[in-house]
Each structure stands twice: as structure tokens, then as C-alpha cells.
Amino acid sequence: MLGTYFTFPELLIWLPLVTGITCFFLGKEKLAKDVALIASLITLGISLISLCYTDAKYVTYNYVSYVWLKFVGNTFYVGLDSTGRLLTLLTAIAFPMIFVATYKTKQQKGASFFGLMLLMQAGLMGVFSAMDALLFYFFWELALIPAYFLCSIWGGEKRIQATFKFFVYTFAGSLLMLVGIIYVYLHTPGRTFEDGTYASHSFALSSFYTSSLSAPDQNWLFWLFFVAFAVKMPVFPFHTWQPDTYDQAPTGVTMVLSGVMVKMGLFGVIRWLIPIFPLATLHFTHTVMILCIIGIIYASCLAIVQDNLKKLVAYSSIAHIGLMCAAIFAMNEVSVQGVMIQMFNHGINIIALWIVVEIIERKTGVKNISLLGGVAQKAPVLSIFLVVIALANIALPLTNAFVGEFLMFTGLYKYNGWYTFAAAVSVILSAVYTLRMIQKVFYGKTNPVTETITDISLNEKLILAVLVVVIFVVGVYPQPFINLTKEGVNSLVAVLKS
Amino acid sequence: MENVLQKIAGWIPLLPLIGFFINGLGRNLLSKKAAGFIGSITVLFSFGLSLYVFFIVNGGNTYLAHYFDFINLASFKIGFDFKIDQLSSLFLLIITGVGFLIHVYSTSYMAEEPPKDFAKYFSYLNLFIFSMLLLVLGGNYVIMFIGWEGVGLCSYLLIGFWFKDTNNTNAANKAFIMNRIGDLGFLLAIFWLLAKIGTVSYDEVFSAVNLARLSVTDIGGITLLMFVGATGKSAQIPLYTWLPDAMAGPTPVSALIHAATMVTAGIYMIARSNILYTMAPATQVVVAITGLATAVLAATIALKQNDIKKVLAYSTVSQLGYMFLGLGVGAYTGAVFHVMTHAFFKALLFLGAGSVIHALHGEQDLRNMGGLKKYMSVTHVTFLIGCIAISGIPPFSGFFSKDEILAAAFAKNPVYWGIGVITAAMTAFYMFRLYAMTFLGKFRGTHDQEHHLHESPPAITFPLIALAVLALIGGWVGIPEVFLHSGHKLEQFLSPVFAQTNTYVEIHHLKNELSHNTEYILMGTSVVLGIIGIWYAWTRFSKYERTDLKSTTGVNNLLENKWYVDEVYDSAIVNPLKSISLFFNNVVEKKIIDGFVNGVGRAVNYSSRQLRWLQSGQVGAYVLLMVIGMLLLFIIQLFL
Amino acid sequence: MDIKAYIALSLTLFTIGIIGVLVRRNAIIVFMCVELMLNAVNLLLVAFSKMHSASIAAKTSLTFASDAQIFVFFIMIVAAAEVSVGLAIIVMMYRNTHSIDVNFLNRLKN
To answer: Is beta strand A63-67 parallel, antiparallel or unpaired with respect to A75-79?
Structure first.
């Protein structure tokens, strides 16, 4: 069956896409919710099975190419390689978690909500497995456009404003990237298909890698792509859409945005930006890195003074992503390996963090740190989970993030010691804001807002327990995850060496 | 044999971890007795295994146990390794031994907590033992760092154990953040090592090949950064202020974490890296001076404190300063020796103080105590032993270890010794001030308290007695050469760990030998000064009466307010950080970046508004524009 | 006959048409002027077609001579279709507003 009729990337893309479209027609919220949940669980199952077939001899299970718009040199070419696999796994884990965690939240027009969510999942899967530039762009937009609708229809009070900002930022980035893709496309060599059709240019990833671009061309094209990715990550100073959007979007969407979608930017840099423009990358490394490091410290400082719980998490995420971006540009084996691991870990941690924040907001109706307090007395289990997750977020050893951050910092240090000193200040600042949050929300005396709060229900416990187990498994024994991504790291580093 | 050792070494930290899981997950089901029993028994078993390991190591075997690859990359490999040698086995014994006694003590001390919190307390305590064991057992700096941050976490959790009170959680945050600053230094040192020589395993870092690859700057930088880590964990200047605040936690926690074990992690780290420090004389000077300055500063503050635990806390800071002085002057054995004796007598003092606090229902102010001698005889005697031991009176344990450090300091620089000895006299003074105000004179508390005064139950007195015995005889493993030929068993035991340093010192002729006469004089001076301190305290405070008169002289004020260090830190670091963050939030983020983005939006909006006038809605106008456009196109086509 | 005469006539008709569209407000007149412009173009196409039919190219290519005349038929068909739709719109407009003044209908604005 596998390899002849179906391949893993196809299954991962089509399953959410088809069920997503089906959801629109189901009408009933409850039914759509269950369909979405089951579909996402099956996707997760497929993704887990695909981990067993990473070996080179299973190449037919992992890669597939269809004829699609042959005359422009394009094929529907998707594949799971070691760079994308861990991220598809993250996508597959994220959605069922989100569906279960928000199971009790009532949605207006719920069927469309779940339909859009699944479309977004299909888009993300596509982004992480596309081996063709046009396809990549197509899935990129497929992932983004549902997000606009989800935010603007189901968001909070200021949703229109926030979505508009989100839209303008990301769309501007996307269009710049499209211009870049077309320009690079026009400089690719021609290609002949099996049936003899000849196209004078090609969208294939491999042709993009071998495109004949001069150094000055690369220099400006680099920014076209980088801005798109930087907005998505986000890197300072392209980040201001993020806190607002995270604050206003429905929590399920925020989880996808922060847990999975920001990885699109990082992934784009690894898969597309650096290999296509190696000369420009070397040329702009310092510029990008300084931006990242400013962003790390700046966002950490902002997180210290936020009163809104969601914005605090948003800024903390910006700081973490900044570090990952800096580590990619350090471009040695250690740092890139750290990023690969950390992309997965950050996703898990931040989704878990959002789940906790969502529970607090749902139970108390507020998200202001200053109004909360004493939650630990009323909801001890929730507090334990939060403390574990928050500590994972600040990279305490034996949690997953430590492995990633340790490798990233080590790699960064190999590149430049002073940058590392500056970036590592965030290690302290992250402790400051995280402990402040724990203290203000969970410790202290209860007040009228938190007096009536109850502890979490069984399904919430289950979800958080699963996430916490993942946190510790990766933290204690990260080697299998390192092995999973080793190949991709080596090929990226090899590109830059030559 | 080695296979067995590997398994046993693995079980030593694993047992407390199991205890942590049982107590942590079953905290709603377990009775207090069960929770206490599980918590204590796991540590006791660990102690038994540690003893076994100790005897094997004592036979001259050391072993590196490899469990699995933690991180394995092409550039470097970090194994999950345990190093079983003399140094780690000694620390194992201290941690599990003292740890077990404190667990037993806690079963009674914490008895008034509800069962849930009681089990939570024991799970934290077990987690702490696990982390601490990981710290000392680790076969490379990364595993040490895992334990290093782990103990910091447990310290945070236990300081904030009574989290309803904001003061406690503030203290917990302070401890964690200050530790984190230190941890950053340690972490950077690890990065440096990895970048330069691509390994963090002790055996490989200390190998001659790799040491040769490190330049003087490298070694200096790495050792300094590690020392920054040590100042955080071991409460040295400038990061010491968290330790006195950490007394907000339950008293057994103060005894275990903030006196006997965790705070000595910095000493362990430097002793472990002894060859690096020996090769970096500049760092050694920094270590020695920092240690000495901390010792003096903390001792002066302790003179004026009235909270029984605060006095002990500052005394701990001061004693840790001694240990760093020892490390800085190259007396690694002396420092480790002092870690051991200090663990005995300081844990004893803290537990004794806990017993007193327990009897007085939470009263911690010395001015409200007094005359407890006749109510609590066991606590009184054991506390007295602790005080004598810390004051350095022979033949109690503190004398031997402190004297070894001071002698080494004298050999390096007599000024170090001079300051050290004065500090020792201050130590004797404030400890006996504490003793006298607590146990002598008349009881100054309320009648209600006096009515309930009682000796503590056996679960509390047993650890006190055990520790008192250790505080008395613990020093006899290190009797100096002048008294007994080859009496320093500890030095012989630890010599393989410091062998590299000793060879280095010999090659470079760094050691100044002291004559026996000088040593006698040094010892005599310090003992006499100690006795003077005790005598002075005894005369001044044995009949202490409470006066409401506040002395307001400058020095008094300065000492009572702890040299205003907290206030200085607040205004120099905390407040600027807050205001810069607010500036970022209110100005940079909202005005500049968002202003720019919104500005783009507004510009588009404005120009569209202007263009709107073209759209009059009159068909005629549109057609006219169309015609004009066509004409223009024609003109361009034909004439240009 | 000289081709210049045809061009001059055609241009005159076209200009009259444009000016009519621009200045008149009566929808029917505007409509008629549009027709006038179309017919001016038709006239020109036929004239040029006739002129070129004697050329060498016309003898080698089958369709060359008739291309322009086919265009004219297309234009006439389109114009007829336009008239039928356009007049219907004007009738509807009159029914709704009792006016066929094009400037009255400026609802596109706002």
C-alpha cells in the first residue's frame, strides 16, 4: 500500500484537507468537533508511524511527485526529509492537543471553525514537506489565510484591529517572498520531464539551489525572503503584530500560531533562505544576528513589565525565537542541531503554556496578572503543571528546552563569544519574568477573582500530563531526536562550507 | 566488580528520585507517617549504598560509569556519566548522611502541616537530594550543571514552601534569580570549554593534552566564569544576599540546603577543577579575596542580628567565605575538610535552632528567648557543642579544618591570615552571643510560651545527638602533622583527586612550607582569640535584659541594616531594569515601532482620501478622463 | 478615390461622437453618439480593407483581404447587442427615476 498508493507526506496533507472541507458541510458544531478530533488523531498516528520509516531505503514512502503545471516547470513534489519530519510531528501533535484542550469552549459557527483549523493544519504540513517553490508558496498561504478568518471571526474584542495588523504584516512579507520566488525562478536552469515536455525554468527546490545568481542579486533577494520569514518568526523589529494577535485570537488559534506557525519562518530560513543565497547569508550574518540579539533582550525586558498574561507569553516567545534565529545564522553543526531540537521543544512548551493560560482565563475570566493570586491553593494540580511547564520554558536542565538552548548557545559561542554573552542575559531575564508570573498568579493569598476557581478536569490533566511527559523524555534522553534531524543539519552546514 | 559499581552508583540518586515520585504523585493518598517513612528510607538506603561505594573507593578504586549518551554530535559528545572517586564519595556520604538525619528531624518538625503539604515537603526534599547527588556524581560539567540548577530549583520550591506569604515567595524568587546569575557564569564556562577543546568530561578536560590546548586567557576566563557560578550558589560577594532571605523556608530546609549541602556546591566545583585553578593564579587571588571579604562582611553583619536564623545564615555565608579563602590559597583539602565539618556543626546549629523555634511556637527573635537551658537540656548541650565547634576550640571539629585553612592562608600571605583570625574571633563572639541570649539568663517570652516550653520529641533530638557527636569527633580525621604523624587521614584519602595540582605545585615551587613552631604560634593565636571572643560574649549577654533603648550610632545602624547592600542592589540594578523595561514598553514598542507601522497605515489612508476626489460619480467625468488618457497614449505613441 | 477623404470623414464622425458623449446629458443622445463612434471606425476599416485588397499580400493570403470586413461584422453584431441591452437599461432607468439625465445618476459616488 504505502509507497505505491500513498506516501506519508500525502497522507499528512490530504487527510486534514479533506476532513477540513468536509467539516464546513457538517453544520453541527459537536459533530464537526468530533470529526476534527478524530482526523487529527489519525494524522498524529500516521506521523508517529512515519518516524519508523526514516531510513534511506524507505525513500518511496517519504517522497512523491505528481505532474502539476508542467509547462512552467512545476511539479507537485512533496517529501519528508530530516529537516521537516520533526516539524510535521509537531504539527500532528499540536492539533489533537488543541482540540482536546478547547473541547469545552463553545464556538459560534463551530463547524467552520474546525474546518478552517484543519485547513491550516494541511497548509502547515504542506509547508514542511514541499519540495517545490510554487508549492511552498501555495501551502504557505493556505496556512495563513484560514488564520486571518479564525482571528477576525472568533477573536476577542479588538480582533479586527489585531487581525488587520497581522494580515498587513504577514501579507506584505508573503508578497515580497513571491516576488523573490519569481525572480529566482527566472534564473533557474530549464528542465525536461519524463514525457519530453520541456520547461525553460523550474520551481523545484533542487533547481533553486543551483540557480545562477550573482552576489549583488543575492543580496537584495535575501531581504525579500528574509522579511517574509522574519515577520513570521518574528524577529525584532517585525514583531509588533504578535502580542496583539496572540492576545486577541481564540486560544486554539494562538496555540497554532505560536506553537507551529512561527516555525514556518525558521524552517523557511533553514530550507530555503540559506541554501539559495549562501553568499548573501554570509554577507548579512552579523546584521541579522545583531537584530536577533537586540530582539532577545528587548522582548525579555518587555515580558517583565507585562500585566496581560497572554502578552507576557507572547514576548517570552519572541525572545526564544530570536535566539533560535541567531543560532541558525551561527551556522555550525551544534547551533543548527540545537535549533532543530528547539523548534520542536518550543512548540510543545508554548502550547502547554497556552493551555494553562486558557484554563486560567476560562475559570476566572481575567488575564491580568495583577488581578490574580493564590490559585495554587485552589487548583494545586494546575499549579504543578504550570510550574513544570514554565520551568521548561526557561530551560531548566532535564526539561526539553535545556537541550536545545544548551546546543544553541554552545554553537553561538563557537561563532562569537560576545554575542553569546549578550544573548545569554536572557537566561536571567527569563527567570525574572517567569518567576514573577508564577508568584503573582499562583502564590500569595486568594482574592475574590480566584476564590471560586476549581481544579482542572480529567481531560485537561491528561493533555497536560502527555505534554509534560514529552518535555521530560526529550529533556532526559534527547539523542533519538538528535539522530532524527542529524542529516538535515549536516547538509545545511555542508552547503555553507562549500 | 565495575558493573556492580555502575549499578550501585546509579541507584544512589535514583532512590531519592523514586521517593520524590511516590510522595509527589501520592500526596493525596499517603498518610503523614507513610510519606515521612518513604522520604527517609530512600535516603537511608542511598546512604548505605554510599557507604559501600566509599569502602570500595577507599580501597583505591575509582570508576567512570557511563549510562547513555546525553548528547552525541560530530563536534562533541556528552555522556550521562557518573564519576566515582574520593571526592564524590566523600560528598555522597555527607549529603546522604546529613540528609537522612534531617529527613528524620523533619518528620517531627513538620508534623503540624496537613498530610498533603507534608508529602509535598518530603517529595521536594527527596528531589533535592536527587539533584545534589547528581551534582556531585556527574562525570562532566554538564551533568554537574543539571544537578546545579536542580538544587537551585528545589531551594526555590522549599523557600517558598509556605507560599501564602508574599515575603516567602519574594525570598524564593530572589534566591532563584541570584542563583541564575551565577549559573549563567557557569554555563558560559561550559560553552567556552566546548568551543576550545570540545569536551566537558573531567577526565578529558584535565588531561595534559587538553590543558596544553588552553591558553592562559582561556584558563583564566573559564575559572573566573566558574567562580561566578560558585558565588551564586555558595552565597559569596556579590551574590550572597539571597541566603539570609532564604531563611524564610522551613528550618530543616535551611539546615540541609542552606547550610550543609547545596551552598557547598561551589566549593565542590572548584575542588573538582583544582588543576585549572592552580594553573590560574590570578583567579586564585580573586577567589581568596572574595572569600575573605565575604567572611568578614558576613561576620560583621551577624554581630548585630536578632533573628536566630539570620545569625546562623550570616555565619554560614562567613564560613563559606573561609572555604573559598582555602580554595584561593590552594588548600583544597582544607576547604573540603571544612565543608565536611561545617556540614556537621552548622546542620546541628540549625536543627538546634529549629528545636528552639519549635518549642517557642515559631518565635525567632533572640530578644524574646533566654533561659531555655533548664527546659531543653538535650538541645542546649548539643547546641553548645555546635557553638564550640564553630568557634574553633580544640578538639572540636571546627578547629582542625579552620586551622588548616588559616595556616595555608598564612603561607600564602600573612594579611589573609590576620583578617581570617579576626573573623574567627568575631565568629566566636556572635555564636556565643546567640547561645547566651537563647539559653542563659531569664526567659523573656510570654507566659503562655513559658507554660508550653518542653524538650522536643526523639525524632528531633536523635539527629541533634548524632550531629553533635560528629561535630565533636568529625575533625579527628584530619589531625595536622604537627600533632600526629600521618594523622591527616582525609588528606591521604583525597590525595589522588589533588595529585595533579600537587605535582604542578611541586614543579613550579609554589608551596611555602611552614615550620612547626610557626604553626604552633598560629594555632595558639587563633584559639586564644576565639576564647576571648567567647568570654566577651558570655560576660555581655549571659544576663541579657531586654531594653527598648535603640542604639543609633552609625556603625550600629550600618550593621543592623546589613550595610544597606539590598538597598544598593535595588537602586543600582532592579529599579533601572524596571524603568528601562517600562521605557521599552511605553515608548519604543508603542510609539516608535507601532507608530511606524500605524504611520504607514495612516499614510495610505490619507492619500486614498485625497484620490477619492477624482471619483466624482459623474459618468461624463469618467469618460472625459478616459478620452484624455487615450489622447495622451496617442501622443506618446506618435511623438515620443 | 483618395483614402484621405475617407480618413477625414471617419475622424470627423468620431470626433462628433466623442464630443457628443462628453457634453450631452441625455442618455439616448449619448448612446447614439457611441454608435456614431463605432460606425466611424467601421467606415475606416472598410476603407482600408478596400485599399489593401489590391496588394501582393492579399493575393498570397486567403484571409488578408477580408479580415477587416469580418471585424466590421463583429462590431455591428456587438453594437446591436449593445443597443438591445443598453436601451433596456435606459428604459429601466427612466422607469425608476423619470429621467434620462446621466449626471443625475451619480450613485457610484459614496
So the answer is: antiparallel
Distance CA B27, CA B114 (A): 10
B620 vs C22, C109, C110: nearest CB: C22
> In this complex, does chain C touch chain A, defined as having at least 3 beta-carbon pairs under 8 Å apart?
no
Number of C-beta neighbours around residue B362 at 10 A: 7
pLDDT for B559 beyond 90: no
Closest Cα to residue A128, out of A234, A14, A264? A264
**CB pairs < 8 Å spanning A and B:** 130
| B466: its cell numbers | 548524632
Nearest Cβ partner for B194 among A302, A410, A435: A410
Task: Tell me the three state secondary structure of residue B262.
Answer: helix
pLDDT recorded at residue C106 = 63
Digit-coded pLDDT (tens) for B69-123 = 888 888 888 889 898 888 999 999 999 999 999 999 999 888 888 888 888 899 9
Please name the residue that has the C-alpha cell 566515582.
B84
Cα–Cα distance for residue pair B291/B408, rounded to 1 Å: 14
Residues in chain C: 110
Give the span between the Cα atoms of A18 and A7, in whole angstroms. Answer: 16
Q: How far is C22 from chain B (nearest CA, A)?
A: 6
Q: Write the CB contacts of C68 (distance below 8 Å, at least 6 apart in sequence).
A: C45, C46, C48, C49, C52
> Rg (Cα) of chain B, in Å, rounded?
31
Between the alpha carbon of residue B62 and those of residues A244, B137, B337, the distances in Å are: 58, 12, 20
Q: Which of C103, C107, C108 sits opposite B620 (nearest CB)?
A: C103
ipTM: 0.91
Residue pLDDT, tens place only, B116-168 = 888 889 999 999 999 999 999 988 999 999 999 999 999 999 998 888 888 88
Q: Which residue of B lies nearest to A447 if distances are taken between CA atoms? A: B164
The pLDDT tens digits of the residues spanning B421-441 come to 999 999 999 999 988 888 888
Q: What is the DSSP string of A80-95?
A: --HHHHHHHHHHHHHH
Give the C-alpha separation, A139 to A133, whole Å: 10
Q: CA B502, B508, B511: angle at the middle one, nearest 5?
A: 60
pLDDT at C110: 47
CB atoms within 10 A of CB A1: 5
Cα gap A35→A27, rounded to integer Å: 12
